[in-house]
Structure formats: C-alpha cells, structure tokens
Amino acid sequence: MAKVQHITNVARRKKVRRRIHKGRVSAAMVIVALIVVGIVYAFSTDECESPITHRHENVDAVAAGERDAAKLRGLASESMERQQVLLEIKAREATLRQHGFNHAADDYINSSTAHIK
Q1: CA 18, CA 41: separation in Å to the nearest integer?
Q2: Which of 14, 16, 40, 47 is at a distance of 20 to 30 A from 58, taking alpha carbons?
Q3: What is the pLDDT of residues 48-98, one digit of tens each?
Q4: Is 107 exposed, middle or buried (0-12, 13-18, 19+ CB in 10 A)?
Q5: C-alpha angle with apex 46: 107 to 57, nearest 5 degrees?
Q6: Which 3 state secondary structure label does DSSP give 60?
Q7: Which of the two residues, 116 and 53, has the higher pLDDT score?
Q8: What are the backbone dihedrals phi and psi of residue 18, each rounded to the nearest 5 degrees, phi first?
Q9: If you write DSSP's letter for every residue of 90-114 in order, what string do you get?
Q10: 66 burial type by CB count under 10 A (0-12 exposed, 13-18 middle, 19+ buried)
Q11: Is the distance from CB of 116 to CB of 72 less than 8 angstroms?
C-alpha cells in the first residue's frame, strides 16, 4: 500500500510577524499634514478678491479701462469713432496679454466692459 500523507504531517509555514514601521507612518502623517495645511491656506480668507489666487486688482489697469470706456459716452452706437475706440480697447488688452500681463489685461477688459454697458 502506498503511504498516505496526513494533513497533520504537512510542514506548516512560519507565521510572519508584521511590524509597524514608525518611519513610514510618520512620513505619511507629515505628508497628510502638509496637504491639509495647503488646502486650508488656499481657501483662507484674505483681503483679496479671490481666496484661491490671492490676487489683488491692478488699480492702474482698472483706471485705464474706465478712462477708455468713458471715451464712448458721447459717441453714437454705430459710428466709426465708437468702433475705433472699441478696437483700441481690444488692442490694448491684446498688447497686455502679449507682454505677459494677463491679470492686468483681465482687470482692464473687465473694468472697461463694465463701464460700457
């Protein structure tokens, strides 16, 4: 007869003890804390208009937009002079963006369109 191997004779695997790596846990805690602090800082209220970007309005760009929009007040709605002033406003915005002043261009065009309407 053939030998029958019993279940009790099978070699048992050695139980591996798992240890908590304190260095890994502390590194994970630091990363989580930095993420939380970053989110809180991003949404913190400041005197800025937007809490995410923390960007103040460019006062000079707003004043220039208001000044250029004021040129349209006495002009007829379909006149060539009005179209020329509107093109100058768009050209100034495009120039600001071309030179890398995107926030100033946004402030300029927003203030001018607010005063045109």
Answers
A1: 38
A2: 40
A3: 555 555 667 888 999 999 999 999 888 888 889 999 999 999 999 999 999
A4: buried
A5: 15
A6: helix
A7: 116
A8: -95, 130
A9: HHHHHHHHHTT-HHHHHHHHHHHHH
A10: middle
A11: yes
Q: Which two tokens stand for residue 90?
A: 């768009």
Question: What percent of the chain has a predicted confidence (pLDDT) above 70?
Answer: 79
Q: What is the distance between the alpha carbons of residues 60 and 101, in angstroms, rounded to a whole number?
A: 12
Of residues 117 and 84, which shows the higher confidence score? 84
The pair of three-digit structure tokens given for residue 50, joined into one six-digit string: 């937007």
Closest alpha carbon to 112 in 79, 80, 86: 86
Q: Which residue has the tokens 């048992």?
A: 12
